[in-house]
């Protein structure tokens, strides 16, 4: 039939692309083609690409429905997507055709790409990981949907005040229509809060009354790379169930009339900007329930369309919990099965525990979610009953296996005793899941031996695994570093549509590690990327940096455990050392540009002080003519996915220097190494596995190992040694800061005291070893430039393991039991 033979297909030819763009200008945007600006051109191009995506999306979803395979659902409160246009063009393979079409219309495609706002619906690692996994699931043709929230305001915009401190501004990313979303105003679910719960003898119940809020679906297509398969994220927006309260309205009380509708809409207004730190706000718990309830209702409706008996639910559905944020899905599925589907409790629990998987992303105690029982009782009374019932049965089983161990029972219970009591979400996630995993080998080991030790003893170790994180090589190599991507393609003689989906193939460049011509080309790519970054720095900060200097980058959320302060104190040490040299001696110094970027949670006082100190140290250093040629220090404001795409290809070294045992994995370590930057790092998270792959001689490791951290902390507490004795070099630097050399002497004391006093993150213990590692870096970079290039080439070549394709296939095969469903 005509409609089947490609009447509507993806735009691949220049004339049809140009025609569609003009058509969107005139119809969708209702504008004239002759006086179009960049923003208008972007909108029209985006709508043309959107059409392409929707065609593939429809075909894919129809195919999935017809084949009815087992599907995976990735529940994540964060999807840190960044920009979409460039990624969509590259994945569809239509970038060149679009470039030409856009040029014909008088625009530059790169300018349009740069005019797009980031979708910043996430804080950091966990949210960006979710975005990489979506790209990989579509590229590997795994039937997977993401479920999240459609925040009206994403991650706050970071401004730096004149005194150096961080200011936050809202991120109203939806003020211009978002061409990448498809509103599904007909796909809605009612979600209840508060009200009254009854429980009957069979542990079934009824929940009624309270407030109802409507969840409205917004879909975002996720194109796979070099495949027609296009997956989906469904993001929920909250809306009032009835426009407004008519009784109050008729009584003339207009404020009262809109009050409850406002509170419904507030639910999905804003992303909580906390990373690795739990803040027990009622609105956050409401977000979590709203999102899990809507997602489960949607999953259940799709399952029911297959007409399969309910006990086969786990044969068609796998649900992955991205940290504990969606753990309410466990009692919610119990509620649906027991209260609504009338499944007996025992059978329901079996279904639940075959359906869920739980990924833990942190062992930091302050990040583990616990919710006060009174809040829960008020907001989700039926779920509290269900949790009590799960807990009761579980503790009986524990008591049976380990009779008389009261302390073990207290540790493993879903309820933490105290005033008030708390619900431990990680324990609930473990109980309700088939498998639990950490995100790098060391982290998964720590999960098994520390926070979940009791559970490993109870369930056996086969329930607790590891899936080392990965990053998508499409965005984090091909898109952000096209010159390196092209060089790899021409060197290994494999089409990029092949190696970008099987990243182990880049090993092929190892053959050329000693080839001088290749070394030159490889070095030229890095140099060009550094110049691109230098141009950005010049245009945003007005600072000129020397692209021949070593670029040394640490970009990530600002957190004490990530130890930006260690890096900064190292920079001060470098500054004072250079300053102490004669002008003649200075000529031998390895030139460095040290770059920081990252956001601090708005309520995290020490992290904010860290930013302020970096900015003010930079002011002093950059204004000093004695050192200007050799050292520049910069804080780039408003770190984002798009800024990362500029920074990642431009590093000579990057720093991943968390106290050993604290960084679960890290993912930017993978991005920098994949782009030829070497690592300065601690023996932590995925740094360890990167070193295993690229060779330990190519990573600059320093610092104490995870196994000794606890002992050292014990010594800090019971046999404290002053900084002066442990590291005279460090003591001197702290005193310089205290003396006011970098301004505001008194302001930084609380930050300095975290080091002088308990020093929980072991800066004093690791400082000298850090300086030694940095000295190695300087020596090799300045004395053996060819050796450096070889290390860099070798590192890139050995990064195949860290593709998120590898990770997503491990989840598919070992956790979800799901197969590829390719759309032909
Ligand atoms: C409840 C507050 C809260 C918010 C966010 C607690 C914890 C989180 C996230 C789990 C923090 C996070 O992003 N963790 C990071 O996850 C990455 C992806 O697995 C890892 O690479 C990072 O090491 C880990 O810090």
TrEMBL record:
Cofactors that this protein relies on: pyridoxal 5'-phosphate
Matching SUPFAM superfamilies: UDP-Glycosyltransferase/glycogen phosphorylase (SSF53756)
GO biological process: glycogen catabolic process
A Pfam entry, by short name: Phosphorylase
Keywords, ordered alphabetically: Allosteric enzyme, Carbohydrate metabolism, Cytoplasm, Glycosyltransferase, Pyridoxal phosphate, Transferase
Compartments reported by the entry: Cytoplasm
Gene3D superfamilies: Glycogen Phosphorylase B
NCBIfam families named among the record's database cross-references: P_ylase
Name under which the protein is recorded: Alpha-1,4 glucan phosphorylase
């Amino acid at each position: 039939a005509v409609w089947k033979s490609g009447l509507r297909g993806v735009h691949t030819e220049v004339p049809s692309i140009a025609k569609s763009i003009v058509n969107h200008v005139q119809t969708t945007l209702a504008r004239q083609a002759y006086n179009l600006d960049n923003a208008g051109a972007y909108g029209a191009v985006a709508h043309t690409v959107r059409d392409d995506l929707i065609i593939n999306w429809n075909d894919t979803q129809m195919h999935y429905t017809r084949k009815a395979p087992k599907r995976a659902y990735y529940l994540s409160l964060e999807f840190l997507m960044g920009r979409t246009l460039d990624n969509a063009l590259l994945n569809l393979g239509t970038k060149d055709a679009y470039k030409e079409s856009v040029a014909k219309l008088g625009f530059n495609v790169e300018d349009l790409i740069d005019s797009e706002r980031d979708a910043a619906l996430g804080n950091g690692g966990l949210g960006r990981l979710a975005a990489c996994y979506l790209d990989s699931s579509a590229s590997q043709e795994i039937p997977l949907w993401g479920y999240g929230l459609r925040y009206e305001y994403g991650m706050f915009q970071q401004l730096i005040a004149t005194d150096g401190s961080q200011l936050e501004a809202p991120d109203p990313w939806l003020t211009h229509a978002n061409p990448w979303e498809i509103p599904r105003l007909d796909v809605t679910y009612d979600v209840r809060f508060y009200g009254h719960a009854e429980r009957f003898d069979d542990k079934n119940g009824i929940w009624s009354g309270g407030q109802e809020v409507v969840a409205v679906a917004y879909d975002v297509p996720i194109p796979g790379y070099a495949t027609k398969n296009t997956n989906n994220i469904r993001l929920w927006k909250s809306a009032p169930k009835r426009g407004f309260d008519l009784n109050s309205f008729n009584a003339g009380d207009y404020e009262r009339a809109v009050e409850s509708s406002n509170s419904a809409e507030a639910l999905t207004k804003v992303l909580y900007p906390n990373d690795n730190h739990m803040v027990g706000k009622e609105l956050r718990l409401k977000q979590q329930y709203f999102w899990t309830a809507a997602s489960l209702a949607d999953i259940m409706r799709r399952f029911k369309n297959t007409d399969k008996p309910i006990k086969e639910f786990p044969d068609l559905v796998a649900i992955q919990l991205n940290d504990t944020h969606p753990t309410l899905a466990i009692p919610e599925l119990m509620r649906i099965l027991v209260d609504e589907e009338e499944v007996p409790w025992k059978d329901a629990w079996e279904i639940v525990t075959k359906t869920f998987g739980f990924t833990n992303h942190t062992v930091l105690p302050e990040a583990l979610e616990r919710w006060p029982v009174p809040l829960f009782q008020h907001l989700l009374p039926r779920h509290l009953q269900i949790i009590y019932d799960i807990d009761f049965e579980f503790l009986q089983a524990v008591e049976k296996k380990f009779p008389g161990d009261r302390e073990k029972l207290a540790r493993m219970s879903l309820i933490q005793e105290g005033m008030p009591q708390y619900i431990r979400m990680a324990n609930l996630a473990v109980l309700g899941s088939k498998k639990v995993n950490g995100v790098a080998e060391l982290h998964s080991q720590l999960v098994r031996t520390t926070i979940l030790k009791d559970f490993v003893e109870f369930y056996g170790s086969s329930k607790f695994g590891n899936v080392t994180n990965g990053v998508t090589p499409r965005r984090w190599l091909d898109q952000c570093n096209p010159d390196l991507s092209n060089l790899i393609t021409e060197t290994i003689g494999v089409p990029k549509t092949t190696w970008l989906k099987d990243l182990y193939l880049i090993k092929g460049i190892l053959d050329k590690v000693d080839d001088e011509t290749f070394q030159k080309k490889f070095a030229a790519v890095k140099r060009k990327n550094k110049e691109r970054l230098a141009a950005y720095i010049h245009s945003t900060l007005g600072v000129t940096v020397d692209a021949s200097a070593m670029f040394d980058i640490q970009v990530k959320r600002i957190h004490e455990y990530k130890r930006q302060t260690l890096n900064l104190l190292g920079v001060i040490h470098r500054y004072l050392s250079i300053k102490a040299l004669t002008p003649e001696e200075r000529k031998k110094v390895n030139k460095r540009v040290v770059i920081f970027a990252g956001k601090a949670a708005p309520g995290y006082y020490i992290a904010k002080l860290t930013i302020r100190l970096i900015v003010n140290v930079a002011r002093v250093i950059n204004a000093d003519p004695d050192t200007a040629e050799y050292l520049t220090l910069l804080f780039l404001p408003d770190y984002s996915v798009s800024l990362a795409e500029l920074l990642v290809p431009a590093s000579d070294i990057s720093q991943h220097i968390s106290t050993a045992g604290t960084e679960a994995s890290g993912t930017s370590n993978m991005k920098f190494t994949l782009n030829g930057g070497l690592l300065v790092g601690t023996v932590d998270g995925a740094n360890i596995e990167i070193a295993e792959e690229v060779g330990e001689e190519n990573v600059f490791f320093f610092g104490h190992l995870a196994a000794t951290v606890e002992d050292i902390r014990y010594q800090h507490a019971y046999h404290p040694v002053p900084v002066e004795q442990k590291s005279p070099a460090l003591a001197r630097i702290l005193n310089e800061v205290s003396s006011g050399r970098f301004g505001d002497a008194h302001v930084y004391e609380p930050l300095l005291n975290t080091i002088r006093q308990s020093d929980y993150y072991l800066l004093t213990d690791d400082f000298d070893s850090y300086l030694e590692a940095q000295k190695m870096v300087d020596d090799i970079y300045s004395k053996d430039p060819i050796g450096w290039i070889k290390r860099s080439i070798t590192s890139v070549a050995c990064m195949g393991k860290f593709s998120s394709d590898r990770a997503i296939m491990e989840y598919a095969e070992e956790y979800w039991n799901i197969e590829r469903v390719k759309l032909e």
